[in-house]
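Work Package 4 report. The design task specified in the project plan requires that, given a folded chain encoded as structure tokens, an amino acid be chosen for each position. We show below one input record used in the internal validation round.
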């Protein structure tokens, strides 16, 4: 069986809903809703999972690790081992403050860039997983503590943009899943972030 793991990063708990750091959760939740998938908590993996059977013996598994952000990789390690999935079959969706608000970038290598969730995934899985990075912009004011920034909520104007872009994020993620990172990079990086992703 071929399994693709699509993991959104975030922190569990209602107090973190809507924060910048939970954008990964929001995008995989939107994809699951679009596909009418049901979330179930799997305590063995300490993760919420939504199973997406595309065709016989081809499954996509949407994942929300339920540990805190800095231990996100632990659940993914268990899932990778259980499904015997190759590292390149793992897509990690997360917020990135080095990218302009609203933009999308896809990459397959690189450092954690100060993102504790990505650092945990690198620690537990190593490099080679696919990164679906969604821009949240740099802190304003620039001297603002990074933890306060990523655990804070979007301003009303930013939230409106994120809400408008949610379908774009889902369509871009579909493109990545269906066509692979090389084609996704080629198409998504060329598009203006206000243009719909009709993939």
């Amino acid at each position: 069986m071929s399994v693709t793991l699509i993991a959104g990063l975030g922190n569990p708990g209602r107090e973190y809903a809507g924060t910048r750091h939970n954008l990964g959760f929001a995008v995989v939740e939107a994809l699951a809703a679009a596909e009418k998938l049901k979330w179930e908590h799997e305590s063995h993996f300490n993760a919420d999972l939504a199973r997406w059977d595309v065709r016989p013996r081809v499954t996509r598994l949407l994942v929300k690790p339920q540990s805190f952000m800095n231990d996100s990789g632990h659940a993914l390690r268990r899932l990778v081992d259980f499904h015997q999935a190759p590292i390149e079959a793992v897509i990690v969706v997360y917020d990135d403050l080095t990218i302009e608000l609203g933009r999308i970038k896809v990459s397959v290598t690189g450092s954690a860039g100060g993102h504790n969730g990505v650092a945990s995934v690198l620690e537990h899985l190593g490099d080679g997983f696919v990164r679906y990075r969604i821009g949240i912009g740099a802190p304003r004011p620039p001297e603002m503590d990074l933890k306060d920034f990523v655990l804070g909520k979007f301003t009303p104007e930013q939230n409106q943009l994120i809400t408008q872009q949610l379908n774009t994020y889902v369509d871009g993620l579909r493109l990545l899943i269906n066509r692979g990172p090389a084609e996704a990079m080629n198409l998504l990086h060329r598009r203006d972030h206000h243009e719909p992703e009709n993939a």
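Helices lie at 23-34, 72-83, 116-125, 146-150, 156-179, 181-188. Validation will be extended to a larger panel in the next phase.
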